[in-house]
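Notes to self after the call with IL:
- keep both proteins in one doc
- input above output, always
- annotate only the second one for now

Protein 1:
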Amino acid sequence: MPEPKQSGPQDFTAGGSSAHPDVAEIELVRKILNIFANAVSASRLYPPEHQTVADFVSLLYEHLRTFLQSHWKLELGVEETAFTYKGERVYEDPHPVRSLPFFFSKDGLQALFFYQGLQKEEVGEFLKTIRHVSLLPPEEADIVNALWEKDLANIRYLAPDDYLETKIGVGRPPLAVTVDRMELNRGKIKLEPDDLSALQESLAQTALAGVSRSNLEQVLLPADNLLAGLPEEDTTREVESLLLSNRNLSPHEEYLNLIIEIIYHEDRTDQFPAIAEVLEQYHQDALDRLDFGRATSLLQSLREMEAALVEKDAVKARVISDLINELTQEAALSRLKEKQDLVSEREKQALLDYLKIVGPSAAEISADLFEKWTDPDLRRQLHEILDRIGKADIEALMRAAQDSRPESTKAVIGILSRIQDRRIAPFLAKFVSSRHPSVKIEAVRALARIEDRAAGRILLNYIAAPEGPVRLAALKHLPADREGSLEDSILRLVSEKSFLKKDPEEIEAFFGVLSRSNSADGCRVLRRFMLQGSLFPQPKLLGIRMSAAHALARMSRPEATEALRAGAACRTKKIRQVCRQALREKNAESG
């Protein structure tokens, strides 16, 4: 039944009067609309006689009744993507395909009205009507026409006159109803015997079940007598406690608990695709609203159910596992990556808890956050998340290492260095071309920890890096136990004319590599540098000769001892002193 238009130039304000509602009133309306949306989803998923739909009808009816007991009428404005109440948006859904506001507004409906006296059966018929229309082909689906045909006494709507005339009928006069609320409040309900019997039956399972037939009228009016006939004090206190506990659950929590219970008890596998679609929308909506607690609860509940069913029902456990994988794939998190900069300080911990349960697909966004967040504790937790991902899926962790994120890439490289996997050394080779010397040095350190011959060959590439600190790190970390090909490469580098132009510390590092090789060729090259003389004093050349002497002193080959004896007899005093001291120490060790 359409709501009659009022006279005057401003005949309707979407969502009620312009008086701004208080916070509690807004929250109650918002809760009603969330339950309404969930109830519509359930009614589309299951037939009207299904217990799930019945539960939602009861839940929606109870919340509407609570509101209407004190407000007489709930007036909702209908916009294309939102419901409004007293001019304020209380429910939004920007997705036209599944948007409940759009479902009503597309057919010209501008407002919905729920009145005191609303019956549970009307709520059920209302949801049935929505379900019926939503299942029709687009050219036949018309919610305004369907509601007009139902003519629900306490659920009405407002649609433009021209729409009603063309779609519903020409010339049908609107019902004019004038209500004096002051007179209404002074009135008294006079119940007939049949009405009293029906009321007693409907209250049989409530706290008013013990009210006698003669006192029902006083219980109903005035409001001061509403507590008459309640159970004893202890029972009442227990009932109030249960009610309070239940009211603390948000509509989202109630909806999630119900869907999880449906999955647990549902035996028909053909129903799971529809359930999965509902949960995907639920999950994406939570991420869009940055409600990470809700998204975490969903994944946690599914994982717990999977664990509980793995031995009882392997088929259903696999279905749930597939659903978890679908919800946590990288594509599902792509929109979250776009919104990560909108996460407030108080939401950061909730986001971390969500990433912990998501698993490997959270690697890239975790690396992004590690790069941007500077708080030590938050970074520590992100490092733990990346570490856990590396143990579960090393390739997912590798993909998170990008040159555009140097800090998180160093963290990833450090984690990879502790994992003995043949894929890691080739992966670290790509950072030779990094723009960040600190990333190269971290890669060098990681290669040094890897027990793989390929790591040594890759380190040779870093020895040729343009940055001195990177070359020095690669030389110092080149493994001692190497193939001949590595030594040949080092011998070739120290034989080049440009070698003497290098920094003294880098030259010393090259000699250190030859010393660790303990080879005859290494002894020969070091001897040549140690005995190299000049007619004029050259401090840098003397330093190179001293470094060669010290490198020979650390070698255990006979050729090294012979080279030291030659140095002990040379003309340069400092070289003689180093060689003689090295020979004394070798004699002491052998004697």
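Protein 2 (the one to annotate):
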Amino acid sequence: MGRAGQQESGAAEDDGHHPSGDLAATFARITAALPGGGEERAGQLAMAEAVAAAIAGGRHLVVQAGTGTGKSLAYLVPAILSGRSVVVATATKALQDQLAKKDLPFLQRHLDRPFRFAVMKGRSNYLCRQRAREVAAGDDQLELEELDESVGPFGRELARLVAWADETETGDRSDLDFEPRPRAWSAVSVSAMECPGRAKCPSGDDCFAEAARERADAADVVVVNTHLYGAHLASGGYVLPEHEVVVFDEAHALEDVMAAALGLELGAGRFRALARISRSLVPAEVSEELDGAGRRLDDALEPLRGQRLLETPDDELASVLALCRSRADATVAALRSSKGDPARVARGLQAGGHLVGDLAAVAGMSDDEVAWVEGPAHSPVLRLAPIDVGEVLAAQLWTGVTGVLTSATIPPNLATRAGIADSDATVLDVGSPFPYAEHALLYCAAHLPDPRRPGYEAAMHAELEALIRAAGGRTLALFTSRRAMEAAAAAMTPRVPWRVLTQDDLPKPALVRAFAEDETSCLFATMGFWQGIDVPGRALSLVVIDRIPFPRPDEPLTQARRERAGSRAFALVDLPRAATLLAQGAGRLIRSNDDRGVVAVLDPRLAGAGYRWDLVRALPPMRRTRHRADVESFLAGLLAVPST
């Protein structure tokens, strides 16, 4: 848990008396306490009332709350006033930080009902005292040698981490004042697949991860990321404290995040990690053969990168997986007989048990799962995921808790796809308080060639240049592929007089800050920037989207979902995903009541395809045009207004 969680856990004790009062009066009081005196929002109150009714009646709620609604307070206030135990799961760290460092501390100061909250993260986010003590004591000769500061940056980082273990109160990686190399952090941390648990670890009684769990057990509201919630379900419900209500914020990402969390990943790194744990505990040939099996797996997976494994792995991969299973079994058997350090033996058995189980799952994959290979050439991994997470969620989640699913953009049929029967859910759209119709213009460059035709890229670059010039820079250009982004940046840099940034120039927070502070700069980026970017003001006056963001036809999980959907695949799989992502990208434009600007889609299919209205209806209610002259006139009007 972070420092904020430490402070939050000290809130006043629950006295058992919690009259909820009138939500309208509560929100009026809370709004008045906002910095600068906030404004009351009808959509926020409507959402809060719906959340309160859902919790009281035990009925699931799916609510779309557009940008500016204030949805986090709209679900937090009624959830806290209900007196129920609540978990809030977010898809991004930015929202998790907002809840933990801003919204929940604010409510502790201004809500009549006392409550406690905590932030809980996966084990690998916390330093492991036992690992740090082993490194410091020289129990691992390789790490002891690397701890010598003369070895270089890695040794110095490892030394700093070992020293930090005696200084930190939280052990939370985010509390470090430097960013350690992944290898250094992994030397002093463990994943859930390695940790043997409090009872089997000599450092269990002063474990940072266990302390975070204890704070979560005592909290009324626990903030986690959605992937950790998926791990909780995959574990059979042992990761998180028991709770009565779960809120999935950024619920548009729920299906994909759950597919990843409920699946598995196999790569050579897991074999190397287990071999390293076991090195001094088992005969040398056992750990060496295990490490060799990992290298064989690397070699077998590399030529299959980007491919889906239909039904069963090919003969060569199947043979390698069988070898890996044999070597993993032998390592686990040797660990069970080991007389070595009990803590390391317990960690090895935990990691080995998970590895053996995952190898068995791949060998026995069902028709309800899909497997594929991805990752870079030097580190390919085999992924296995459920095709339909709704079946898993229906069986493991919704009968035990009340769910609130919310986002600024709710995909069509989200409840059904998440395993909630239509009869068990209320679906609501509270809109957005922002005046899109007056402040925003949607432009489709209908005259451009189809993106799948020759000549599109050159024409698109010419259109992009004209739009950037009309906006005086001030452009966020979003692309559906890295290649398209790089080509556009290379074309625009010599052709426009303003700074052109790309997502590769700086770390994301610094990049967004540089874009916001240099008002006339342009930022070119791919999928990671279609959501979660918040740049209010004139620095972002134009959002350009190169193509309708349909999923790739060869993306394995989407491909498997299409096969399930049959003849309705485009309508049930491709179109909803494209509409949701398009709306997320367009949502980068208007971030405050005073923002004005243009969303330009450089894909003529938005103007002429038979499915265009499914896409347009997913977007905020902006005025629409096909004429660039309208855009140029609109942007000229913005530039004529002096900057404040």
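Annotation: Residues 315-336 form the longest helix (22 residues). The two ends are 40 Å apart (CA to CA).
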